[in-house]
Amino acid sequence: MKKFLLTAALMLLVSLSASAYQASFKSGNFFYYVTSQSAATVSLIYDPSLSNTDTHPHYTNLSGEITIPATVTNEGTTYTVNYIGMRAFYKNSTITKVNIPNTIKKIGEGAFYQCTALTKITIPNGVTEIANSVFQGCTKASELTLSNTVETIGNNVFKGCTSLHMVAIPEGVKTIKYGAFENCTNLSAVFFYGETLEELHNVVFNGCTSLNSINFPKSLYLVGSNVMKGTPWWNNQADGLVYIGSAAYKYKGEMPDGTDITLNAGTKGIATSCFEGCTGLTSINLPNSLIVISTYAFNGCTHLKTVSIPNSVTTMYGYTFNGCSALTSVTLPNTIPNIPSYTFAGCSSLKTVNVPNSVEEIGSSAFKDCSSLTTLPISNSVKNVSSGAYENCTGLTSATFPNSVTTIGNQVFSGCTGLKSLTIPKSVISIDTYGISIVGGCVNLKTLNIDNSYCASISKFAGVKEIVETVTLGNSIYEIPEDAFKDCTALKKVTLPNDFTALGKSAFSGCTQLGDVYCPRPRPIPIDASVFSGVQQSTCKLHVPAGTKELYKEMAVWKEFYDINEDAGTGGGGNQSGILGDLNNDKMVDVDDVNKLINIILDLE
To answer: What is the helix (H) or strand (E) element at residue 191, kind and residue range?
Structure first.
């Protein structure tokens, strides 16, 4: 009883301790939320009683100049105000100036969204990130001061601030995100201090119809699309390839047929859509300084024939060569970790691609519609093959995944009408079909080589049940599941693993054309009569290891095969690979060999 009372008392103390402070409270003019009791920090928030933040303007009782305090006290605890919360002053139309303390580290999304009376914006020291849309639509804000602690300016932060006429970006800013200054129609000059800026995302200055003066630092290399669209600066550029910082930004004007372009020495990036639709481009020479090729960089360059990408490139984004129908060969660098989505989609003339060993993922539809590929573009380092990676590659006749592959997405080979043979290694742990077969439309897929228990069923290859003629099950498979290849009416030959321990019911039931079964086990195992139901065992040949025919003739179901031949090899007996310890002859020593040794010791083989 004493122990019970002590436990109850402790629980009560914990409960009282947890409720000793309020999660949200009001102090002075503002509401706050405790973000950390131990660190004593709070976020300034809007009135929590407002149920819909999209329709209610916030703090409508405040007007003119307001000051956010650095600290507030509640119930005996003094808290530091270090965050202005999301939509804190949303659509307030009466505040003209906000004094923000240096304790603030971050300003949340839409904090001053459409504060249409705000005339001056000052970001204090300490703030490292300005979140999305913070000052979007502040149409009267004519003065902007940013501290040199800011590293990131988020999406649409100053979009539609039509009274801004000049902006100084301090040293320290590295990234300016999507549309940050879009449609600032009176912005005429932008000055960047220092050499820290690295990224300008899409449409940052799009629609800045007065912007004619801007200095881009050389540190800038990652540039999105339409960054300067609709500006006098862009209109004043001469036709040809325009550069921004260290990035090739965009080709201006109509490119003549047969154009050969050599990028400037020191170029670090190719911007999004830089050469998109440049049908006159036939070759491109890339410098060893290049580190990034952005999305759609060469999209639709229908006369580009060959590309060699230097090893300095560490990042490629999707759709890079999408629709380059004349591209015949590509040399990829051994520094990229993946081939992104749609990189070579629609490259119908592409015949050779060297996939380097640095690549671990083939992105979705990366080689879609590459109808001239005859060999599978993959390397021994690839782990993930995403959906539709080789869709409609009609020139592929065989495909063998390396032992590095663990996951395969849906529709990987969909529409590969020339594919005749597919090999799945034991490394695969997942095929994400989502109800869509990875081999849908592969009307000539006759051979499946499967060394993987997860895939040891025709259900993983829906759509070819009436097409596959040969199935070889590798030695990593110990159990063939029920109904594994049931009703595969075209199946003529099957090779079972060396050391399988179970053959599920109806595994080959209804395989009416099955003519050869290779069973390399030196000792037959009992199986259900339904395994070969519907198979004409009077004409189907059973192939077993030398010296084991009589054993099979004495075992139920197996003995129903009229023609039993001792030509299936040694099966589980003997080391055929020449590697010491390789008991299952798969040319490696691993846990499968240990399992085989255990079976031998237990006299299960």
So the answer is: strand 189-192
Task: Say if 134 falls within a structural domain.
Answer: yes
Residues 264-301 pLDDT 10s: 999 999 999 999 999 999 999 999 999 999 999 999 99
Paired sense of beta strands 24-27 and 30-36, if any:
antiparallel
Cβ proximity of 329 and 302 under 8 Å: no
Q: In what order do the strands lie in the sheet with 352-354?
A: 259-262, 281-285, 306-308, 329-331, 352-354
Neighbours of 444 (CB within 10 A): 13
- Number of neighbours of residue 513 by Cβ within 10 angstroms: 14
Q: Which two tokens mark 287?
A: 């410098």
Q: What is the pLDDT of residues 484-532, one digit of tens each?
A: 999 999 999 999 999 999 999 999 999 999 999 999 999 999 999 999 9
CATH of the domain at 190: 3.80.10.10
Per the structure block, which two tokens stand in for 132? 């999305």
DSSP 8-state code for residue 485: T
pLDDT digits (tens, 9 = 90+) for 556-588: 999 999 999 999 874 433 334 445 555 555 556
Tell me the helices (H) and strands (E) count for the chain, helix number first: 4, 43
This prediction's pTM: 0.86
> Cα 383–401–449 angle (5° rounding)?
140
| Token output for 252 | 């201006």
Into how many domains does the chain fold?
Answer: 3
Residues 418, 397 contacting (CB under 8 angstroms): yes
For residue 18, report the phi and psi dihedrals to the nearest 5 degrees: -70, -30
Does residue 6 sit in helix, strand or coil?
helix
Please give the residue range of the domain that contains residue 29: 21-109
Of the three residues 236, 266, 289, the one that is the final residue of a domain is 236
Task: Pick the closest to residue 270 from 236, 206, 320, 196 (CA basis).
Answer: 320
Contact 319, 345 (CB under 8 A): yes
The burial class, CB within 10 Å (0-12 / 13-18 / 19+), for 239 is: exposed
CA distance 90 to 55: 9
Q: Which residue has the tokens 């990034």?
A: 292
